[in-house]
Amino acid sequence: MAALGWFTRRRRPATERSVLAGEASAEAARKSSAETPSSQPAAEPEFPVVGDEQAAAFFDLDNTVMQGAALFHFGRGLYKRHFFRKRELARFAWQQTWFRMAGVEDPAHMEDVRSSALSIVKGHRVSELMSIGEEIYDEYMADRIWPGTRALAQAHLDAGQRVWLVTAAPVETATIIARRLGLTGALGTVAESVGGIYTGKLVGEPLHGPAKAEAVRALASAEGLDLARCAAYSDSSNDIPMLSIVGHPYAVNPDGGLRKHARENGWRLRDYRTGRKAAKIGIPAAAGVGAVAGGTAAAVALHRRRR
Fold first, then answer.
1. CA distance 209 to 136
2. What pLDDT is attached to residue 13?
3. Which single residue of 86, 110, 147, 220 has CA 20 to 30 Å from 239?
4. pLDDT higher than 80, residue 266
5. Where are the membrane-spanning stretches (predicted)?
6. Mean pLDDT of 113-129
7. 3-state secondary structure the chain
């Protein structure tokens, strides 16, 4: 018994020390887990926010969603259907090449393009141009959609948010593209029509620069959107007014002016062009100058074969 008593007395302190060690370890673990969130950098919030019905996304079209300008591609399609002559095609070809090489939207240049387009469609029915526009999308536009930008738009759609195109292109053309991409809708330049026939004039002014910002504000008000929770995407410094009114501005394939502004203001950048030259002057490397001219040359060759 004495031996047993001795053994018991020796075990009790050891057991007490074990309990104390266990309690101390548990307390330390509890404190550590409580301190971990504050000691670690906060994770970036998920964006776009799933189920946020007051958020939406607004995408510029030319050089943001689509390589080149939609209006130029539309012009090529109209030429193929004999809406105008080869001399006018050459003018469209030059305008498209200039736009792709410059990588910027010069207002005076774009106004000249729009005037040319309005003169071409004058006297034609709106329904006729809409039907032709569907065909032109498949022929010249579908394979010029930037996959990266398309994925951004889809992310908003998957989150349950609405997505609009906002472009200086004709609203009919923009609506066709938005529908084919599964987007909510489009804001675009409105050409005047009377009795369903184009007059060759615009309603108001082209949806360009500050006009885009005003259109987005008006739509947001009508749709009950909170612009601070919305996103906007563009390649052009001309769209800084639109990008500045949303809480999540993105510079996509940006021109020099927008890239500089985005960096100065901490805006996010996305560039889906590849190659040093593409990043510098805005030409998609997969296309190149030769490919830009190639489509036009093919259209000219088609016209010659028909003569």
1. 26
2. 54
3. 147
4. yes
5. 281-302
6. 80
7. CHHHHHHHHHHHHHHHHHHHHHHHHHHHHHHHHHHHHHHCCCCCCCCCCCCCCCCEEEECCECCCECCCHHHHHHHHHHHCCCCCHHHHHHHHHHHHHHHHHCCCCHHHHHHHHHHHHHHHCCCEHHHHHHHHHHHHHHHHHHHECHHHHHHHHHHHHCCCEEEEEEEEEHHHHHHHHHHCCCCEEEEECEEEECCEEEEEECCCCCCCHHHHHHHHHHHHHHCCCHHHCEEEECCHHHHHHHHCCCEEEEECCCHHHHHHHHHHCCEEECCCCCHHHHHHCCCCCCHHHHHHHHHHHHHHHHHHHC
Instruction: Give the model confidence (pLDDT) of 52-86 as tens digits.
Output: 999 999 999 999 999 988 988 888 898 888 887 76
Q: Which of 62, 235, 239, 255 is catalytic?
A: 62
Tokens matching residue 123:
């006297």
First to last CA, the chain: 122
Chain-centroid distance of CA 164 in Å reads 9
Q: What pLDDT was estimated at residue 289?
A: 29
Residue 271 among the catalytic residues: no
- Map tokens 């007395």 to a residue: 9
Confidence at residue 98, expressed as pLDDT on a 0 to 100 scale: 53
* 248-252 and 231-234 beta bridge pairing: parallel
Which of these is catalytic: 52, 60, 143, 158? 60
Residue 112 a catalytic site member: no
CA angle, 284 as apex, 182 and 166 as ends, to 5°? 35
